[in-house]
Amino acid sequence: MDKVSSARKLKDSLGFWNGRRGFQALLREDPKGLGGYLHPPAMFSLGADRGTLFYARQPPFCRRCMAYGHILASCSTRKCRFCGSGQHEAKDCDEPKACHGCGSSTHLWRDCPARQRSYASAAGGGTRGFGGRYHVQGK
Question: What predicted TM-score, i.e. pTM, was given to this entire model?
Fold first, then answer.
């Protein structure tokens, strides 16, 4: 994406902030991309928090194989998101879970010593970051 605007708080029909933020951005042209554009990922992570991205005329996105052009209900790919095997899905995985940050099988991301904690977390606050969904509006 190019030329991303600053965030603005999105409001509901009564004028109250609904917890979402909106941005305006231009998609980069890509002759190999779907529809001639390079699309940003529909799902992303910021540390331990996961978010989703919605924008006008967004192509269908599959949450199983992480590819554009179809949705999960019509996906024929079998790929485990834990170990990367093409022989089974995550629900059937027997491999030990590993940290997504450093790859160690002795702990998960939430307990990773390499993870930088937020100030609120270090100070004993109950927040885990802003997380949730993001809404991007196209022009």
Answer: 0.44
